[in-house]
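Table S7 (text form). Paired inputs.
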Amino acid sequence: MMTREEELQQMLLLAQSIGQGVSFLMTKLLAEHVKMQCADREACMVETREMLEQALSSFWLHVPGKDGDEYDLSPLIRERVKMILDVIEGEARHTLNLAPPLKERH
């Protein structure tokens, strides 16, 4: 029988693996979308990223605390998802031979 710590470690590894799989699929999806939808791939990449950011802005997550209060984790989760989107966009740009995003060109 596994200890609670071993169970949590196993759950963490599974969550990380799922995250890597979703990131891989999102990268492929973004690159294929840009290739198929637009003649101007740079403009399409920027527009698609803006759409993803807009969708993310409507995400919210409130969780109950042990003290009975509710906590809004939305800003934290949005910020972390944006970091993942940055990586996904970078990989898709590399796949399409596009320049890095403007914020990385400085």
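Next pair, protein 2 of 2.
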Amino acid sequence: MKPPVPASHTEVKAMQLFPCPFCGPRSEAEFHFGGDAGNVRPDEDEVSADRWSSYLYMRHNQKGMSPSIWMHMTCGELFQLDRDTLTHSVAGSKALTEGGHR
């Protein structure tokens, strides 16, 4: 007979709440990370292999408050989330499109 699993291994961890600008606070499980805010795609006609590689793989990875793009999978909207990368505290969110719901 197997020994019982310790309670610490069966506890459900609380999810972080992210504020969707369209639906309000929701569990982080409903969201998909889209990348750093401000990572502008280079012009395809004039991009070098080094520039394209940098766009795809290099990240700022800054400490502290960092703007990033997220998609709320429930409503399908993209938005900017301002979050501290050290504490994971969320300062706010804003729609990327005026009025939302593309």
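The two ends are 57 Å apart (CA to CA).
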